[in-house]
Amino acid sequence: MALLRPRRILLLTLLFSAFLGFYLFSCLSSDDDGYVSTSAPDGATVPDEIFGLLWFVAAPEEQGRTLVVHSGEDTGKVDAKLAMSEPVNPEKPIDMTWYALGSIAAQGKSRGRGRLHDVDGSARRSEDVPRRWGKPLAKSNGGWMERIHVLRKEYPLIVFSKVGSVTYLQWTAMNPTSLLDPELLYSARAKAILERYDITPRPKIIEVDLRVTTAPSLPTSDIADAPHIKTLLTRLTHHTTFPNIILHGHSLGGSDDLGRMHEEGLLHSVFEAAGLKVGWDGEYERGEVMV
To answer: What angle, rounded to 10 degrees, do the helices at 182-197 and 255-263 form?
Structure first.
């Protein structure tokens, strides 16, 4: 019996050590790309719908897709298996898979040989697709942890802006007494402030009033989706106008908010804390006008 007791103690020690090692390994190897949600309750760490929207507007494989809004009363979540031009309701949650349908289709075709097809049906070679976007992304959470990681690395700062369509600019030229869309002025100011900071990676500018679909089957009213993007951003970020500056999935606000942080000397530290490289030292040259 005296010999059995040390063996039993040794066995229990080994079991405890193995359990402790497994626990620590699980903690260290867990996915760290969870983000605090912008529209879910405080403390939520599930992938938020805002990242679906960011992927939708930034990923090359989603280019040519626009938000088409339901015309009827059936405005529930869209089925993930439905077509890429299936209408959705920006006022209600949209299935995350819908935001990445273009990428998912490209991933399926890239596993074999042949040509990929854009939303409009035009073909292109699979080697033309950037590997960082086209690689399989279905390891966990429907691939969204990986997609969020790509967004974080490639486009940590995304700006929803307005630049003015050709038609609008022509109309204002013919009507000089008309008031310029204030969102154009505020967008220009925000972009000027960001340009001053010489940020790396460069901010991804989404000119919402220039977004058009490449799908010829959609009616003319569904070609541009700027109003629907605004509705969606309002629901997800509670900011109701353009521009809307999104840093790692969180809205910094608009031009006034950005200008206030700039004037208070806070933007430099905000960008650096988010992992961005800032090339501007904060000093203006003699005679230079402050933005």
So the answer is: 40
